[in-house]
Design a protein that fits this description.
Blueprint lengths: L9 E4 L13 E6 L7 E5 L5 E3 L10 E3 L2 E2 L9 E2 L3 E3 L5 E3 L8 E8 L2 E24 L4 E4 L4 E4 L2 E4 L18 E4 L11 H12 L8 H10 L18 H15 E4 L2 E6 L2 H13 L4 E6 L2 E9 L3 H11 L17 E22 L3 E4 L2 E4 L16 H5 E5 L2 H9 L9 E3 L10 H4 L2 H10 L4 E3 L10 H7 L5 E3 L8 H7 L6 H13 L6 E6 L7 H14 L4 E5 L6 H12 L4 H7 L8 H17 L22 H4 L3 H7 L1
Parallel strand pairs: 3-23, 5-24, 24-25, 25-26, 27-28
Antiparallel strand pairs: 1-2, 2-3, 4-5, 6-23, 7-20, 8-9, 10-11, 11-12, 11-20, 13-14, 15-20, 16-17, 17-19, 18-19, 21-22
Helix pairs in contact: 1-3, 3-4, 7-9, 12-13, 13-16
Length: 642
């Protein structure tokens, strides 16, 4: 990936062939090349390169340098794809299934005092990161990266961190109280019993005169019962399915909801009694009152605030949209305690979104969203595909940085590179900005770290070795397997495993810490204890600082390509892969857990177990995440790009 020989650059200066883009100041030219898969590089003269990290961000560094803005493989990620997100209609959807433009709930307020407000998904993306499991006192398990933040009773806190040193930042500990709306209840299946209960609750008192949403659902359910009207009778001992449908039907017909208060008023005692019985069976606290103006009417009010209202909506799933609104609901009273935070020992597919409020509700907890992609909108690019294909190159970055570092106010605080976009993405092989940046930092006495997935790094090892004598330097490379035959089938034309091992060895011989990404691990091909043990032994032999293991991730496009390759090469494995990836792009949870159990003792045996949290004792950067671009291409290309 680091070779640029024979690259054909189609020069388009601003004003010659296309207009200057309005979001790009100092645009010199825009460059395209088929070798870069449709990526357009916009060369600009930057005014500033050294960037201050916003106060309160919680990251273990204060300054960054990003010679490139936008990248084919740089993102910030947070939660496992199956995490349920609260939609603006009160329902939920898996984080991995959200789309840009979806209406969801965020919050407004200060500290733990929050109200739910509708917001919009502005960007959605994914990659692979070190995963941690956060277990709450009600049994909820959240899988997130160490960087992810949740709202606690004492403010925003990262999943992992340290109380001392450069890794110091607010982070979760056992006993911390998370703020949210309460645990999400599963939505009911629309069984025959549920449908009968719904029709009983909605039609018993002439429900066709009610809301259009409810009437449409009733018309959908009625054919299941033919000419029978037996569903209008309340069963003597209804099951849970019937009760859920009944709650939804009565609420759609005679319920109201506003300002965190949910109630139902009904004139028929048998229906009111059955509604109270259904609430009681599901553990809802409620209050039953007479309505003075209507002697036969009874009003049932749900107690417990927004958390119980949401549980009712999820458990019963009523049809009327406006009655499901949670706008303005106060949520600070619903809290759950953290019981444990555990590293899983694996990198997993993790997802993130950007919202208009800067947060969202994940599995009932207020969850902070990340910013990197949305910053691209400041350049009049979108936060999705443009982030991957419209790359801004600060061609004067070394010169501007050198000038900034000479200012008397500069205190030589550590500078992290690759925190937003990768400084060693493929175009660095042509632009060659990093040598000047590294030199400027070293000459000023500034410690530096590099987070990268680009093998262009090999070019600068002598320079990094030299400057490491004057300032602390840290870096992290990817080696997926040792089998040369399998490697050739999967990734023809890429550096051999031996060449990558030599890169790690050279980095370590230069006195530089170098972590290794074992990615992707292929089920039943490269995941055996023997194969992993042999690979870890070689990594230990060349001196890898630590190792992180990543199972294969198959997004649409990559999934089809890999399926064809697998069918032609290992046809017997096709049914097993279909089962493993039946639910989506990432491998089943049970497989990940088995792989983690297999990997952990092997890493310990070879002294390669990853550090937990941010307890980093040297300026070594965290292991780089797999590129978002890499997930959109076949696995062989993923390996090459790493």
């Amino acid at each position: 990936m680091c070779s640029t020989a024979g690259v054909r650059w189609d020069r388009q200066r601003a004003g010659e062939g296309e207009p200057a883009l309005p979001g790009l100041e100092g645009l010199v030219r825009s460059v395209r090349s088929p070798e870069f898969d449709g990526v357009t590089f916009h060369e600009v003269n930057a005014r500033s390169v050294l960037n201050k990290v916003p106060t309160g961000s919680g990251v273990p560094f204060s300054w960054t340098v990003n010679p490139y803005r936008g990248c084919s493989h740089a993102c910030t990620y947070c939660l496992e794809g199956g995490t349920r997100i609260l939609l603006a209609d009160g329902r939920t959807r898996a984080l991995s299934e959200l789309k840009v433009g979806d209406a969801i709930y965020g919050t407004r307020g200060h500290g733990a005092a929050r109200r739910l407000v509708p917001t919009t998904v502005l960007a959605h993306w994914t990659t692979l990161r070190d995963a941690y499991r956060v277990t709450l006192d009600d049994g909820t398990r959240l899988v997130a990266s160490g960087d992810h933040r949740f709202l606690t009773s004492k403010g925003w806190k990262h999943v992992t961190g340290s109380k001392l040193g450069a890794a110091q930042r607010p982070h979760l500990t056992p006993g911390a109280e998370l703020i949210g709306v309460g645990r999400f209840a599963p939505t009911p299946d629309e069984t025959l019993g549920y449908r009968a209960g719904y029709l009983c609750g909605m039609l018993r008192s002439g429900g066709f005169g009610a809301e259009a949403d409810a009437a449409a659902r009733a018309l959908e359910y009625l054919p299941d019962f033919g000419a029978s009207v037996g569903f209008l009778k309340v069963p003597a001992d209804p099951d849970a399915h019937w009760r859920r449908g009944f709650l939804a039907g009565v609420f759609d017909l005679a319920g109201s909801h506003g300002r965190g208060m949910l109630s139902v008023a009904h004139d028929e005692p048998e229906i009111a009694d059955a509604f109270v019985a259904a609430l009681t069976s599901f553990g809802f606290a409620h209050q039953l009152d007479e309505v003075p103006k209507f002697p036969t009417r009874q009003e049932v009010r749900l107690l417990g605030g927004a958390g119980e209202v949401l549980r009712f909506l999820h458990l019963s799933n009523p049809a009327v949209a406006w009655k499901r609104s949670l706008d303005g609901s106060v949520i600070g009273a619903s809290r759950r305690r953290v019981e444990a935070i555990e590293p899983l020992g694996l990198q997993l597919p993790l997802f993130d979104i950007t919202t208009g409020t800067g947060d969202f509700i994940a599995d009932g907890m207020v969850s902070h969203n990340c910013f990197a992609r949305n910053t691209h909108t400041y350049l009049d690019f979108d936060a999705g595909r443009d982030f991957d294909t419209q790359v801004v190159v600060k061609v004067n970055a070394p010169q501007v940085l050198a000038a900034q570092l000479k200012r008397p106010s500069w205190r030589r605080e550590p500078v992290a590179m690759g925190t937003n976009t990768d400084p060693y993405q493929r175009a660095e092989g042509r632009y060659g900005l990093m040598p000047g940046i590294i030199t400027a930092l070293a000459r000023s006495g500034t410690p530096l770290s590099v987070l990268t997935k680009g093998t262009v790094l090999a070019r600068d090892l002598p320079l990094l070795q030299s400057v490491a004598a004057d300032v602390p330097v840290g870096l992290a490379v990817s080696i997926a397997l040792l089998d040369r035959e399998l490697q050739h089938r999967l990734e023809p034309g890429t550096p051999s495993p031996q060449a990558r091992l030599e890169l790690v060895r050279k980095a370590r011989e230069a006195g530089l810490p170098c972590s290794v990404l074992v990615a992707p691990v292929l089920p039943w091909l490269t995941d055996s204890a023997e194969a992993l043990d042999a690979l870890f032994a070689r990594l230990a032999e060349v001196g890898a600082t630590s190792v992180t293991v990543i199972p294969l991730h198959l997004r649409p496009g990559a999934r089809e390509w890999f399926g064809r390759w697998l069918a032609g090469t290992y046809p017997a494995l096709v049914p097993r892969y279909r089962e493993l990836y039946a639910k989506g792009s990432y491998v089943q949870k049970a497989y990940r857990e088995r792989l983690g159990e297999r990997v952990a003792p092997l890493l310990r045996r070879h002294g390669l177990a990853p550090k937990t949290g941010y307890e980093v004792r040297t300026p070594e950067p965290p292991v780089p995440s797999v590129s978002s671009r890499g997930e959109d291409v076949p696995p062989a290309e993923q390996l090459r790009l790493l």
